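Notebook, p. 212. Picked up where the previous page left off. The plan for this session was modest: take the two constructs that came back from the sequencing core last week, fold each one, and keep the raw output in the notebook itself so nobody has to go hunting through shared drives later. Recording the first one now, exactly as returned: residue sequence, then the structure token string.
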Amino acid sequence: MYAKFASSREAYPSPRIAQEFLVDVDLLEFPLNLEYLEAEFFLYGAYGYGLNKIAPNLTKGGPTPIGAKRGKMDNFIRDVIKQFALQEVGHLRAIQSTVKGFPRPLLNLSPKSFAKVVDSAFEKQLVPSFDPYRSGVNFLLASYLIPYVGLTGYVGASPKLQDPKSKRLVAGLLGVESGQDAVIRALLYEHAHKKVKPYGITVAEFTNRFSQLRNKLGNAGVKDEGLVVVESEGAEGLITGNVLAGDKYSVAFDRTLEEILRIVYGSDDEHKPGVFYPKGADGHIAKSHLLKA
């Protein structure tokens, strides 16, 4: 379905063409880090097992994720998450059929890892510690943390791609990632003003805190918004509901790959791994930053 790119300059007729295609290879390989994370989180949350059982060839021998498990959720939410999970498997297949890729990086999907992010968002330790697998709303809130980051990365990478096949693939991936994010936000928005047990904090406040944290970690201004905003920040400055995030023209925000690393590492430093990627992300771009650490 997708043409496979070569991974060395010698395969192309001129240095210029080689450089253009290798830029595409790097930009297409980087999202594998997030697609692995999404696939494993959704698979384990819905089914109780991950790629090792569903599609072991896609892992390329990478280590099994830490701490992931089947979540508690109602049948409707589980059905939605199953669909997300299998969509992510498809994304991995699509990218790996286009570029060589790399083995699944070590992922920490334990409750402790998510609790660390949530505590950072609230600037205090929640009691009991946040556990994404404890309930359907918890899992949706944890899911709020994931597809949107990849979405903004695809928006940021798109203008840099050279080959039409690369552009088509990223447009297709972006479309589905955007859909996932919209579904998650819509499901949460329905309960925006309900309090999450046992914290007494509304769903909307959780999302606002998560978005503020990502803005802080990304260190590149406001590129993230929660489900309820002040009216002046809503669409056309006329509404507080914010079921879809966007700039003042309701256009999707973009992020650089460095911003994404700062966020998923939870360190506000693309050179310092942590949280979901204890040993760092993989691929040429991510590794180039690790070498500078």
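Okay, moving on. Second construct, recorded in the same format:
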Amino acid sequence: MAAPKVAVVGAGVIGLSTALCITETCPSCSVTVLADQFSPSTTSDVAAGMLIPHTYPDTPIHVQKQWFKETFTYLFAISNSPEASEAGIHLVSGWQVFKNTPREELPFWSDVVLGFRPMSEAELQKFPQHRFGQAFTTLKCDCPPYLLWLEKRLKATGVQMHTRKVADLWDLHSEYNVVVNCAGIGAHQLAGDEKLFPVRGQVLKSLTHERIFHLIPCQISFFMSPW
């Protein structure tokens, strides 16, 4: 029996991670990544990469927690491995501050990250416009090196990577047994998902080699990373 042929459409962090997961779970599969852009020209290349989940109202909390826990465990293992530097995965500590006390002072992910606690009054005094805050240690994924690390691992396992603009997923059905859509924002046009739209984010890089804190106000995410 011929090996199942799998196409993963998209070469951002989701596409490459999905391709690696399929390869590791089903080594007999022949996996190909198809994308019109690879790193450094993907949306993932400019992502802040902070591992802090948001709550999705249509997904049960226990499911969201399981997803986050599995992701944290996987990346935490990389951060403790000899490949941590090359992969761009490391621990980072910081604060999350709010102008108003959130409905849930103890988020569902509080026992997954490290050292979660409410901020002290002395710490909050540094942010006079904010009334509540949380301190914790989580993981940061520097996406450009992480994408290259994923590509390296995929190529080592024999995964093919082709620069190809896919206009219609059905165009692939005669070539592949399975097609996985990881096109990200490209799915708006590729899959006709009219509800999908980009949101604006900002990442500021500071010229320092010292470890700094990451501040995340409730209305606007504000990240600072060493250059």
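Notes on construct two before I forget. Residues 215-227 have pLDDT under 50 and may be disordered.
Flagging for discussion at group meeting.
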